[in-house]
Amino acid sequence: ETGVTQSPTHLIKTRGQQVTLRCSSQSGHNTVSWYQQALGQGPQFIFQYYREEENGRGNFPPRFSGLQFPNYSSELNVNALELDDSALYLCASSLDRGLGETQYFGPGTRLLVL
Amino acid sequence: AQSVTQLDSQVPVFEEAPVELRCNYSSSVSVYLFWYVQYPNQGLQLLLKYLSGSTLVKGINGFEAEFNKSQTSFHLRKPSVHISDTAEYFCAVSGANFGNEKLTFGTGTRLTIIP
């Protein structure tokens, strides 16, 4: 069983640009969640996708969007980057959207916005 | 909505000594509770979780946690720590009903093991 992978590992962008981060979930996992972890903070929930549909969203503006594909891959897109978007972005997959499901995290993509 | 407080941002402990990492939560609904560990340059890994049943939960790597509903706490313990336990530990809570199932994390506790 392969783990959750993310690409790229590091990324540098400038303010106003757009970025796409990618995640490959564990095979068979129908649910993927994305988190933003600022330096020295815990992860904050951005949104969750279940079977390619958004299934819950945290307090993030619409310029944060996502996609989930049938092949267990997913994307996080951020438009009009701001300096405060600099953070570690984590994706986590789970078998289903059931309550109390264990989420399996990838190593993250570290984004720096200059 | 749920929230988590981890009062200790850093905890230094001598090797082979016991450790307790504190976690308190707030919620208006029943909750599920989790402890995750994050090693340097890695993602988070589940240590243990409480869903229901026995309030004492045993996890991986010798860790255990006790759910205390009256004190709204879920403290993590290990009787004897090792150098390899050096990491960041996150407590997380989710509501036990649909509509509140997203994970809310605390700010983390950095555990440093002193040889």
State the main characteristics:
heterodimer; A: 114 residues; mainly beta; 7-stranded mixed β-sheet; 4-stranded antiparallel β-sheet; 11 strands; 51% strand; B: 115 residues; 6-stranded mixed β-sheet; 12 strands; 0% helix; 52% strand
What does the model show?
The complex is a heterodimer of chains A (114) and B (115). The radius of gyration of chain A is 13 Å and the shape is globular. Chain A has strands at residues 5-7, 10-13, 19-24, 31-37, 44-50, 53-57, 64-68, 73-78, 87-94, 104-105, 109-113. Helices cover 0% and strands 51% of the residues of chain A. With 114 residues, chain A is an all-beta fold. In chain A, strands 2, 4, 5, 6, 9, 10 and 11 form a 7-stranded mixed β-sheet that branches. In chain A, strands 1-3-8-7 form a 4-stranded antiparallel β-sheet, with no helix packed on it. By secondary structure, chain B is mainly beta. In chain B, 0% of the residues lie in helices and 52% in strands. Chain B has strands at 3-5, 10-14, 19-21, 24-26, 31-38, 44-50, 56-58, 64-68, 73-78, 87-95, 104-105, 109-114. In chain B, strands 2, 5, 6, 10, 11 and 12 form a 6-stranded mixed β-sheet that branches. A 4-stranded antiparallel β-sheet of chain B has the order 3-9-8-7, with no helix packed on it. In chain B, a hairpin with a 5-residue loop joins strand 5 and strand 6. Chain B is globular and about 45 Å long. The chains are: A mainly beta (114), B mainly beta (115).
Q: Helix content range of the residues of chain A, please?
A: under 10%
Query: Helix fraction of chain B?
Result: under 10%
Oligomer: heterodimer
Largest sheet of chain B: 6 strands, mixed
Structural class by sheet pairing and helices of chain B: mainly beta
Shape of chain B: globular
Chain pair forming the biggest interface: A-B, 24 and 25 residues
Q: Report how far the terminal alpha carbons of chain A are from each other.
A: 38 Å
Beta-strand residue fraction of chain A:
over 45%
Instruction: Please tally the β strands of chain B and state the result.
Output: 12
Biggest pleated-sheet summary of chain A: 7 strands, mixed
Structural class of chain A: mainly beta
The total count of helices of chain A amounts to 0
Tell me the number of helical segments of chain B per DSSP (H or I, 4 or more residues long).
Answer: 0
Low-confidence stretches of chain A: none
Radius of gyration of chain B: 14 Å
Helix-strand sequence of chain B: EEEEEEEEEEEE
* Overall pLDDT metric of chain B: 93
